[in-house]
Amino acid sequence: MDRRKKKKSRAPRSDKGASTPPFKEAEATRRLSERIECTPLAGLTAAHLMEKEVRSSPADASAYGGNFGSIPIVDGRGSLIGIVSEFDLLEAVISGMDLKNLRAKEVMKHPFSAFEKANAASVLRFLQKNHLIHVPVTDGEGKVIGIVARRDLLNACIEGEEDSTER
Asked: Which pTM value belongs to this model?
């Protein structure tokens, strides 16, 4: 008689590609919002933080538009359909693509965006969680109306702190 214990079979676990359950994500954003209520970001939305003069590009345009970190790709109505970042362009170069003849639609990624009324805490959390530097801001119709960068959040913190020390 075999006295060895039979090992229970377990399904393999993989954290690759695992995402935070929505309730945990919502809880993390709520906690961050509570902390931000005591900072210069309190009460600010994406519309307050965004750069309003944002350059966008159609999908058939050149992927490389010069001095930008990322550029929203829009359809004929101005609705966000993609985004091209410097990271995407460097990946294209590594892959051997000709940057001079590269079209945005060949390298654009599915776009992330922030709604104009999103609070600063959710924008901050979104940028950090997704390792983004910029996020386009859209209105209720999905049209690009601005872009928020990490530095916009940081500048708002610094400006708010300076305002409070001057009082």
From this structure: 0.72
Cα–Cα distance, 30 to 102 (Å, whole number): 42
d(CA 98, CA 96): 7
Q: Residue 21 — very low, low, confident or very high, per pLDDT cuts 50/70/90?
A: low
Domains of the chain (ranges; CATH) run 45-166 (3.10.580.10)
For residues 135-146, one letter each, b for 16 or more C-beta atoms within 10 angstroms of the residue's C-beta and e for the rest, the string is bbbbeeebbbbb
d(CA 37, CA 72): 30
pLDDT tens-digit series, residues 61-101: 999 877 778 899 999 999 999 999 999 999 999 999 999 89
How far is it, in rounded angstroms, from Cα 93 to Cα 83? 17
